[in-house]
């Protein structure tokens, strides 16, 4: 029992977009643990962070991933911080995990952090850079395949993934 493929990567790496393309091509369900968590909690993730804090969110995320990895035949995308949990990294070992890599410049564009407002958004961009640098070794650790998504269309990325399935 296993998802067909599990997509990991930082915010702005295109996990949800690529998962949607792939699941449509394969005619299977796209499951996203962030969506599962929001449905179970009845509120957006941003509210869970504010109301209950990040450690609580990580517990919900851990449980959502355990459940999702037991399902088979779907394309699964995980939240950007899922790989922070050592148990999750261990659980991913037997699965077809693809790391969607992205440069800071491209991720900044995709998540809408304008480079034109350094005073307002510079700090957030620094956080994104730090987060991407700290997590890169963890994404690499769990991945069977790494794809640099800059300058590639969703269809090209999906083609590359399908070649490895
Ligand atoms: C997070 C990324 C988010 C979501 C949560 C935490 C992170 O998912 O799980 O806000 O720690 O990087 P996306 O990667 O889909 O934005």
UniProtKB/TrEMBL annotation:
Catalyzes the specific phosphorylation of the 3-hydroxyl group of shikimic acid using ATP as a cosubstrate. Its EC number is 2.7.1.71. GO terms for biological process: amino acid biosynthetic process; aromatic amino acid family biosynthetic process; chorismate biosynthetic process. HAMAP family: Shikimate_kinase (MF_00109). InterPro entries: P-loop_NTPase (IPR027417), Shikimate/glucono_kinase (IPR031322), Shikimate_kinase/TSH1 (IPR000623), Shikimate_kinase_CS (IPR023000). Binds 1 Mg(2+) ion per subunit. The keyword Secreted does not apply. Mg(2+) binds at residue 16. PANTHER family: SHIKIMATE KINASE (PTHR21087), SHIKIMATE KINASE 1, CHLOROPLASTIC (PTHR21087:SF16). It is an enzyme of class 2 (transferase). ATP binds at residues 12-17, 117. It is found in: Cytoplasm. Keywords: Amino-acid biosynthesis, Aromatic amino acid biosynthesis, ATP-binding, Cytoplasm, Kinase, Magnesium, Metal-binding, Nucleotide-binding, Transferase. One of its GO terms (cellular component) is cytosol. It catalyses: shikimate + ATP = 3-phosphoshikimate + ADP + H(+). Pathway: Metabolic intermediate biosynthesis; chorismate biosynthesis; chorismate from D-erythrose 4-phosphate and phosphoenolpyruvate: step 5/7. This is Shikimate kinase. The keyword tRNA processing does not apply. Monomer. Belongs to the shikimate kinase family. PROSITE patterns: SHIKIMATE_KINASE (PS01128). Substrate binds at residues 34, 58, 80, 135. GO terms for molecular function: ATP binding; magnesium ion binding; shikimate kinase activity. Its cofactor is Mg(2+). It comes from Kribbella jejuensis.
């Amino acid at each position: 029992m296993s998802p067909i493929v599990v997509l990991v990567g930082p915010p702005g790496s295109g996990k949800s977009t690529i998962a949607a393309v792939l699941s449509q091509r394969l005619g299977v369900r796209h499951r996203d643990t962030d969506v599962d968590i929001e449905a179970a909690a009845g509120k957006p993730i941003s509210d869970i962070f504010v109301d209950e804090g990040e450690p609580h969110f990580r517990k919900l995320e851990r449980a959502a991933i355990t459940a999702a990895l037991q399902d088979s035949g779907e394309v699964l995308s995980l939240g950007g911080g899922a790989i922070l949990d050592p148990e999750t990294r261990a659980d991913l070992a037997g699965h077809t995990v693809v790391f969607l890599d992205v440069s800071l410049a491209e991720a900044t564009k995709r998540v809408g952090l304008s480079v034109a407002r350094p005073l307002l958004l510079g700090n957030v961009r620094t956080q994104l850079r730090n987060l991407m640098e700290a997590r890169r070794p963890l994404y690499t650790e769990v991945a069977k395949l790494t794809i640099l998504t800059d300058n590639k269309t969703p269809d090209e990325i999906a083609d590359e993934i399908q070649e490895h399935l």
